[in-house]
Design goal:
Elements lengths: L1 E7 L4 H11 L4 E9 L6 H17 L7 E6 L10 H6 L25 H6 L7 H15 L3 E5 L6 H17 L4 E5 L25 H5 L2 E3 L4 H9 L19 E7 H4 L4 H33 L1
Helix pairs in contact: 5-6
The structure holds zinc ion.
């Protein structure tokens, strides 16, 4: 049996992007990992949102034990506001607070997030504890295939989750098939197109990626519409959320080891490394200059 993981930055992304995967899980072991609590607008709305997600997943016969809540914060979509984006570029032990908390929690009373289940305490909102959560959960699920929000997605949490995933896979030395789904394609007022049966190319996607996409139609769009409609706390008059109920879903596919070199994590670490050594290099240069000056006299 194949092990499949659907990584959702917020409760609802799993339904918007991966209903076809969730619908057809009978032949595999499937886990849904809800990374943030979606608590951008507070704890009360987050509890409602989490319950909506649980309800939708139960209709797809996903066992409750296979829904894992990591319990991190959600502070907005723009890169400067986004919790995961800021966490990605932070130092390992710097706490990035959300509007609600400085540590992980399960928004539904009486239920526990992943870190608390394993460590009997909450994880701090730090890069270190986030990676610990992601590493341990992937060690537990041992995925062959991971569905994750795309690196091209315009939501900071969605994009940074993909980068964190690659960093985690590199640390675990795991090679898996990664399929990326796009939720915020570049202009939420225009994409996904409201009255079309199929997805058009999102503005954030280049022609080559779009041409090579994988298309799935193994689900009933009417059923997907009903599942999305459960998320009443997220539905607005813009028609954005329900416009994901199309005849097909699409995924961008890359093998993990081909992607790792292109993450900002690698270049960021290189730059950081260089600058951390810079004073030493300047010191050496000054020493050799001084030595040359001394040898002249
Ligand atoms: Zn999201």
């Amino acid at each position: 049996m194949r092990n499949i993981v659907v990584l959702a930055p917020h409760p609802d992304d799993e339904i918007l992007g991966c209903t076809s995967v969730l619908k057809n899980h009978a032949e595999s072991n499937l886990w849904v990992i809800l990374v943030t609590n979606g608590d951008c607008f507070g704890k009360v709305s987050s509890e409602i949102r989490m319950k909506e997600s649980q309800q939708a997943l139960s209709l797809l016969n996903i066992p409750k034990d296979n829904i894992i809540v990591l319990g991190f914060g959600d502070t907005g979509m723009n890169l400067k506001e986004s919790f995961l984006y800021r966490l990605f570029y932070s130092d390992p032990n710097t706490v990035i607070k959300s509007n609600v908390s400085a540590h992980t929690y399960h928004p539904i009373d009486g239920e526990q997030e992943w870190y608390y289940q394993k460590m009997h305490k909450h994880a701090q909102y730090t890069r270190h504890d986030f990676l610990h959560s992601l590493i341990t959960v992937l060690e537990y699920c041992k995925p062959d295939e991971i569905y994750v929000s795309s690196q091209y997605d315009k939501h900071g949490d969605h994009r940074a989750l993909y980068w964190f995933l690659l960093e985690t896979l590199a640390q675990l030395n795991l090679s898996v098939i990664i399929k990326q789904y796009i939720i915020h394609g570049g202009n939420d007022k225009r994409w996904p197109k409201r009255n079309k049966d199929d997805f058009s190319k999102p503005p954030c996607c280049n022609d080559k990626l779009w041409h090579n996409r994988i298309i799935s139609n193994e689900f009933d769009p009417e059923e997907k519409y009903k599942l999305i409609n459960i998320f009443q706390s997220q539905i607005t008059t813009s028609g954005y959320l329900l416009s994901f109920a199309k005849r097909t879903e699409f995924f961008l596919q890359e093998q993990s080891e081909n992607s790792i070199l292109r993450t900002p994590w690698i270049s960021w670490k290189r730059i950081k490394n260089f600058y951390s050594k810079a004073p030493f290099i300047v010191y050496l240069a000054l020493c050799s200059k001084a030595q040359r000056l001394c040898s002249l006299y």
